[in-house]
Amino acid sequence: MSTVHDKPEVDEVRRTFFQSAYAQGAPWDIRRPQRAIIELWKAGEIVGDVLDVGCGFAENALFLAAQGLRVSGVDMMEPAISRAREQARARGLAVDLNVGNALRLAELGRRFDTIIDSALLHVFEPATRPTFAASLASVLRPGGRYHALYFREGPRAISPEALRAAFGSGWRVLSLREAHYEETDPEGAAAWLATLMWLGDASPTGASP
Taking 80 as the threshold, does the pLDDT of residue 209 lie above it? Predict the structure, then answer.
């Protein structure tokens, strides 16, 4: 897998976009966890040490911590992490929340059993997605699972073929199903919910069963 990071100017464009979105009232700030994440937890699909990548205000991470899981979150936007930390304190929850780059997750210095991703994957351009996949693999234990909720329609949509192109050697797509991404707009957005397993560097390229 490629481990080439985005150029600094690309990171800055992404940062500016999120700063503007937060200033105007982010459409993903629904003040509660995504229903798709709750359903994954109820199904026993989120276990062990959990990382919420691109956690934003971390409502998903806070929900999982309230269920007794050991949860960390990482996001590039310091204001989002600051609010998430305030909410964690107010709710009496121990959540490790960090400002960081999703393309350099190895800097966290930890490994996880489960990674959840609520609307981060589709932020990356096709050429950057393998780098993101490599970053995920650097912190996911072999046999660990990555659950991604991302757009199914619109300019940021990712097709099943594009998903498999991004996650190559060492990954296996376990499931890919239609889902719904909740937003402040009651209609929300059509989404995919993908579950992938990290098998390890020596494992052959997997495919959906």
Answer: no
